[in-house]
Structures are given as structure tokens and as C-alpha cells.
User: Fold these one by one.
Assistant:
Number 1:
Amino acid sequence: MRDKQCTAEEVAAELRDGMTLGIGGWGSRRKPMALVRAILRSPVKNLRVVSYGGPDVGLLCAAGKVRELVFGFVTLDSIPYDPLFRKAREQEGLAVREWDEGMFYAGLQAAAQRLPFLPIRAGLGSDVPRNDPALRTVRSPYGDGEELLAVPALELDVALVHLNRADKHGNARYLGPDPYFDDLFCLAAKKRFVSCERLVSTAELAEGAPQTLLCNRTMVDGVVEIPRGAHFTSCAPDYGRDEKFQRAYADAPQNGLLSRLVSGSEQDYQAVVQEVS
Amino acid sequence: MTAAKTTVSRAEICVGACAELFRGDGEILVSPMSTVALIGARLAKLTFEPDLLLTDGEAGLLAEVPVLGEQSEPAREGWLPFRRVFELLAHGRRHVVMGANQVDQYGNQNISAIGEHSRPDRQLLGVRGSPGNTVNHRTSYWVPKHSPRSFVEAVDVVAGVGYDRATGSAGRFHDVYRVVSNLGVFDFDGPQHRMRLVSAHPGVELEEITEATGFPLHIGEFHTTPEPGQEALELIRTRLDPKNLRDREVRA
């Protein structure tokens, strides 16, 4: 079986200008932050980002990497609003497709199943279709005749997710309470990369509850071992959210850390971690 | 315990009013999104709605009611990761109490953005689950700061769907139930499902409510929001929220 180990820089180098990038996790939880930082340092631009958004979105916006964001929310969870995302929207008018969270799930499912769309009730009556005029409805062909929203497939060029354990072949397991949508991000994408807290043998990976083996190797093209690779977001049970660091991130526009976090080297980032955490 | 009848705080009135939102709900999932609504849901479960299903805010369903702000591992009775929440909410056995940066007279709610959506004056969370919640199951709102900025003539972005827009499939399971604010309790049983005053909190004059509301509120018969009873007060103060986190959301 193939050895799919690679580096964060190699993952970032897979991205081309204009690509659609899906990022797993949820809010400020289990985000592939080390891979996101590798993108910040790469020359790629004009990305269309698809995310249940957290600081991944804020950082990519601040680095000027984002052409359009597909999202249902951007939040830091313990801090409601991400200041870098707010700035991108309020001062730069960042283009968005703003969907209901359930629509977003349906869009990932449609892409994963190679369907053009999936019907859903969510979004009807709201301003979601008004603010995203490309959305269409579909009428049930059965006797009820209901008109439902047709959520288009969220087809991704590249998906990045962070999981607790993986083997070198691309099998991967989550150990926390929630899989989020990481398996669907992988199924919806052409190229799929998993960063993991710890790379283990297949035998060791298989120990434990089989239903938390979220990704199998057909869903993954590259594996990167990055301990604390989700920092400063949470990666239960390996570590919780680094709230001190997150506070510093949220204050970055005022506290002088912004340029070090957005355009610094990995050494700069780790130095900031030492200073504030 | 028979504590002397002390002054009941406005936050405690609001907790009682939020608890009442769940009366009659039976065995469904309740998802209160902030402190006072959360205490209210837990109070309802410990008193008159024992079958309510509570989440721990992550993927766990709670077998016991925890103490607010206490780091502990409460016993669980089930698992509900986010993807299951989407399935359950479409299935309908849920009552959510969301916040609202803006709410209008038909119950349209905004947590997305203030100003023009293309380039907002103030970016908020995004629509989150509001569009899906409001067309699939019962939804209420808890607004700790009742003012003409939160109770508006028209919301800037419709995230949660109100009665005037709940037509066709959007209306099939639509059920925006009530709004609880720091001033009173409101429903949508006014003419054409317009917002109506149900009760004013003790010590709140009608004029204070109408002045803080940015649209003509339907005023018919209304009453004074009841204070939580002695048993409920004891539960709020000693069992549910001993650190008094409720006062951070509603000033006395």
C-alpha cells in the first residue's frame, strides 16, 4: 500500500490560484491550522473557501487569499466574532455565499454523492436566496408538489482536515466527541489532505471503537503528522482550545501581533505561542 | 429550605419566562443558545417538563442537569454530533431559543449582518441555522436588551423566517412561538400574526416597552409576567446557577 506522508509545504503547493478549498472542523474546533499557515506562506491567491468558519477564515482573509467565501457562520465559539473576517467584510466587501448550516451539509453531501443538488426546506422564506441569486428551487415530482430549495453540490478542488490519529496510508480516526463533517469534505474534493496529531501504525490505528475511523485511505491523498496541528483551536481529547492565544488572536488588529500571525514564518508563530500561551 | 421571600431579580423573572417557553413540549430536544434561556430550559426540565432532552453544547445529551459554570463531566444519555442535529431538526422534534440582533413584528430574525449584505456596516455571525430552524420546528427568541435597535421595523437580513414570509413549503412546519426580552414576553397572535404583548415583567411600565420597540406593538389584554415560585427560585439560585451568571446577561 502506498505511503502518503508529505509535508505541510507540499500540501500548500498543491493549491493553484482560483481553486475551491474546503476546510474541515467547525468554528474554533479541530481546524487544520498548521496547513492553513502553510497556505498563508505560499504564493497562492484568489481562493474560493468553503468552511464552517473559524480562525481559518479570518487568517486566510487577512492574508488576502480569499476571492469568495461559502459559509454559514464564522465564529471563534468562546469569542462570538472573528475580527479579521469582520474587517474583510466591513472594509473590503469580501464576496460571500451565505448559506444555512444545514444547506451547507446538503451541499457537501451532494458533492460527495456526485449529485448536482439535494433538496432541502432550509433557506426558503429567508434572505439566503436573495443574497445568493444563483440558488434555485425544485418542485417535487410527487403528489405533494412542494417547492424546495435545490442546494447545489459544493464541489471542492482540495480538502484539508485535521484528525487525531492516522496511518501513512490515509486511514484516520477522530477521538473527540464530534466527527464534524471532515469525511464529507474529503468525499467532496478532488485532492484530500489529512493532518494528524500522531501518525501510528495501521495496527495501532485499528485499536479502539471502529466507528470513529472516519476516513479510509480511498478518501485521502496525503497525510501530514503535525503535533498540535489544530492549535489554537481545540482538538479533543488531545488538547482543548488555547483560549489565551485565541484572545491574543482576537486582539491582533490592536496588539501588534497581526503581521506576525498572518505573514510571519512558522518560527514566528511558535514564538508568539511561547509569548502569549 | 425556606429562605425569606427576597427580591426577585429581573434576570430571575426572565429565567422563569424562558422556562415557560417549554411548557407542554414533552419529549423533544431543546437548544437554548445563551445563559438565561439555558437556565430556563434546565429549570423547566427539573420542574414541569421532565422529559425534555438537553445537550451539553457539544455532541453529548445530558442525563442529568449540570451546574452552570462548573467544570465537571455530567452523566450523558446520548450522542448528537452536529450532523445529527441537522437530521433531528428536519425531523422536527426540537424547540430552539435563539438570540436575535434584530427581530421584527412578524418574527423575522437577523444574526447575519447589519446594513447592506454586500458590504455590511457590521458583520455578525452569519445566518447559522436560523433559516432551517424556523421552517422546521418551534423557534423562540431571547433578547436580553430590548431596544429600538433590536426590535426593528424591518430586519436588515432575514435569517430566521417570520410569519409574513412563511408561505408554501416554508410555512408547512413554521412555528415561531414567542420572544422573551428583559422587558416582557411577546407572541405573534396579533392581527396578521403581528407581535403582541403577552406580559410585562414586574416593575416594567407599558410605556417603557412601547418606547423600546421600533414598530407598533399589538396591545390587547396582557398580564404581569409571574415571578418564579419559591421552589423555582431555590433551584435557580442554589442548584442551577449558584455563580449568578444570569446577572451578566440581564442587569438588575
Note: The helical segments of chain B are 10-21, 35-46, 82-91, 130-136, 169-172, 206-211, 230-240, 246-249.
Number 2:
Amino acid sequence: MPFAVVFENVTKRYPTGPFRRGGVEALRGVNLRIPRGAVVGLLGPNRAGKTTLVKLLLSLSRPTSGTITRLDRPASDTRTLAKVGYVHENQHFPRYLTADELLRFYGSLALVPSEALPKQVDRLLDLVGLADRRHEPIARFSKGMVQRLGLAQVLLNEPDLLILDEPTEGLDLPGRRLFRELVALQKKRGCTVLLVSHVLSEVEQVCDRIAVLVGGRLMKEAPLSDLLRDPKGNGTRPLEHALQPLYEASLG
Amino acid sequence: MNLPTALLTIRWMVRDTFRQSLVSRLFWVMLSVSVLCVLFCLSVRISGDEALPTREYETPMRLNPEIARQMGRDNAFAFGLVGSGLAVEAAADPLGKKLARDEGLDVFQTELTLGFGAFKVLTARDRKDAVRWLQVWLSGAVADTVGIFLVLIWTAGFLPTFLDPNQVTVLLAKPVPRWSLLVGKYAGVLLFVAVQASVFVLGTWLALGISTGIFDGLYLLTIPLLVVHFGIFYSFSVLLAVWTRNTVVCVFGSLLFWVVCWGMNYARVSMVGRNLEGMTPVSRGMMEAGYWMLPKPGDMSLILYDALKAEGFSMKVPEFKALQDQGKFHPELSVLASLAFALVILAIAAREFQTMDY
């Protein structure tokens, strides 16, 4: 099976202390394979290492040991980022730009061909419902509007891999519906999605696989349906119940 | 990563910096300062004597010190033979003029009116020199000292704001080299300062020309020298921004660095120019190494002073003058060494930014 993302025995240690001798291990020997076209929910309690994993996948940080492959190339090869879209968990865009200017700016840096960019910007602003506010500075946008703009921004380069870190925070109900539609649309065109979220209902609705990180270790990686199957009977159980014993391991 | 991608990134970062300056109101604050100075220059009126006709072989010579002292001036110059006697810069006071005339000398005098007639200043210069005197002050004191200081403070926040992880992370996840983001931001700030310096210098030059009829092109040399001076010191601010992402550290760090460089520059010039004794070879060597490694703001000011031919308008720092008189001042080497420092610091900052974890 072809994989969009492969983590092989990846460890990330953040050095601390005056001589950087101490350290916090944010990831410990993580092995993770994300099949192409899958929508994977990355779950875990706070400080589980989810953001670190995302940063490593985006080449924002480098692993202490282990190897990471992104779209068939080593993660150190940043050319593959041209086919990656990323929503940051606490997104702050330059407040002095308008929505239109921001998308042109970020689209250019995502290496979208200049002749295709204006049409792409028009289409995406329309898609996320910001077409009529396109010339307003972002400073006047609500948090939900900034999130919508963030969603438009990740689709500029028609990515093969989408990394969404808490993308629905601040979104209202129509915004969340829009988010689900967008993910479904991307899945349909074969894009791989990694969704980091604490909103389990949302994860259940859009993901087909789940990866659970606890204390820097990958505790589980399985299809959503496997996790939802009740081991005591033939029925299903809420995702929360499936996660509870895994999360409690971090307390132990 | 190929060059076109890096150039594209730099272009976008330059554009972004201008937008940032417009919204942070820095653009307008600096423009307002320039407009005030332009208005001041427009308010200048000048009346009085024209420059003496001099021939190429006639160079100004210092007046007999005793006559100069009696006229109330420590420094006065004779500007060539005219008619029956020497014409001199003379003190503005009537006694000085009388003394000079008793000596058989013609006397220069011009009246500068400032603030649209609010203030009147009598100067012992011809009309052109009176205008150049104003230009030397605008260039040396306003732009090269106060201006550089303020611009270093005002622009220190640009990079820390940009490097805030919540803002820059999405850009770092784009397929462009990280160093080009940093270099683009540096180039943007430099270009912004170049535009502001051009507005200031060209504006005041034109205004003085319109109000007095005297256009002296030497003053325009201030623009490139100011930009180079700023660019050298801003590179250090860039390094601090990459290391700390903290505006306060960038402001105080770059100002402190400027002061330290001035101190090192002055100390070395004193050592060589005054030929200080009692220094060990080791301390001499360390002083030389410090001087050549660090930027040299004093030398930059001296180069500006010489470019404007400011002798006769303001006093040169005696230690620098002594160094020049001994033929030990090398402006080209000094600028090249300072530029090399800026390049090395930028390279370190870019390397650090390229490899750091976000």
C-alpha cells in the first residue's frame, strides 16, 4: 500500500538546562504509516506530542533520531512542501493584509503558477464565504473568519497532503459544516489528511483512521471502525470510551 | 532550492515589509519628520553676499590668528585676492566688521531668516556657504546621528513581530528557503529606510534650493552613506531578532552595540592618531582586531563629513583629524570591513534561522 507519510522510529528530544544536557522527550520511537488518500485523526491528551509530530512532518523541526518520509521523499527535502497544506492551531495572519492579498502572497510562496493564482483565489474565497469581504483587512475579521481564511489558504496549491491542527476552533456551525465538506472533497480527489483535534464528534465524522499518541508514544493506530467496535459485544461504543483507557495510561 | 524561488520570496517579503510599515504607522511618522524638515527648509530666506570669484589655484587660507581673534572668531578664512585686499569670513558683529575693514579686508555677511521670518541669524558666510552650513547640520546631526538612532529603534520591532511562531509557522511550511524569508525582510527594511532617507534628503535639498536658489549636489551623497550606515547596524538587530524574537532586546541590544562600536572606533583612532604610549603590544593588537572586526560608526561619520566637504562648517573630532593628517585613515577599507561584518552577521542569522526548531 502506498503511504503518504512514514515515521520510522522517530524520537524528538528538546534539550533543556544551561548546557543543554537535560531534555524533554516529546516523541519516543514513533512508527506511523499514513496510507495515501486516508483521513487520519491524530488524538491524544495535552502534551502527548501531537504538535511535535506535526512540526516534524512539516520540517519545522528535525528529529533527534529516526527517519520521516513525506510524499515519497525524505522530510528534509522541502520541495514536497509545494504539495502540502497546513492549518496552524493558533493561526495569526498579518493583520494589515486583506484576505485577497494574503491568498496571493501565500499562494505565490506555495509556488502556485502566477497565471492560475487569481482564479484560484477567487474560487477559494467564494468557497469559504469570504468573497464579499476580500478587500477588508484581516484585522477586522472575527476568529471564525480567520479560520475560514486559513482553510482557503491550505487549498491554494491543491495539496496531496493536508495537515490540519485544530482547524475548527472558533468556527460556528455553518463553518464546521463547511470544514467537513472541504475534507470530504479533498478525500474524494485523493488527498491525504492528518487532522489533529480534541473534538471527538468531528473526528468521528470525517476520519477513517485514528492514531493515538500518549506521552510521546504511539499507543494505537487503527481504522476508526475497529476502535468503535465494542469488545464486549457486537455493537459499537463512543470514541471517548475507546480512548479513555489509552489516555489513562498517561496518568499512570 | 533554485534562485528564482528565493528571488520571488524576497520580492514578496519586501512588499510585506512596506505594508507592515504603513500599518504600524512608522511610514507616516518618518514621513512627518521629513515633511517638518522640508517645511523648515522652505521657510529659509537668505540675503547677503555672493561667494567670491576664485580661481582654481587659489585655495582658502587661514587668516592671521590675531586678526581673527580680534574679530571674535577663532577660525576665519581668507578666500582669495580681490581688488585691493583680502575678503574674509568675518564675525557678524559690527566691531568685527569694523576691525576687518580697518585691516583693509572686505567682509562677508549674510542674513538667514528661518521659520518664515520668525528668526533672523546673521552669519559670516557667503550665501552658498550659509546654505551648505544648514545642509551639513541636516545631514550630520539630524540624519546621521539622531536619524540613525531613531530608525534603529523604530525598525527593531519589524523582525520579532514577523518571527512570532503563530505568524511565521505557516510561511515556514511553504516550499521556499527559510533564509530567503529573512533576507527578504532585511532587504525590505533597508529599502524602506532608503526611501525615507531619499524623501528626507531630496525633500530638504529641493526645499532649500527653491527657497534660496542654491542647489548643492554634494548634499545628496548623504543618501547612500546613510543607507549603508543603517544597513551595517541593522544586520546586528536581525541576528538578535532571530536569537530572541524580542523587540526590547533588539532595540536595546542594537543601540548598545552602536555605542560599543563607537567606543571601539574612537579608542582605536585615538591610539593611532595620538600615538598613545604605554600600551602593550597585546592590547594594541586587541584594539586593532576589535576595530577591524566591528562596524565603524565614527569612520562612517567622518566619510560623510569629508563627502560633504564640511570643514569650515563644523569641527572635526581632533583624534580623527590627527589620524587623517598622518595619512592613516583608509575610508575604502573601513567601509569594506564594516560591510564584511554585516554580511557575516547576516549569514550567521540566516544559518541560525535555517536550522532552528520552530
Note: Confidence is low (pLDDT under 50) at residues 55-60, 75-92 of chain B.
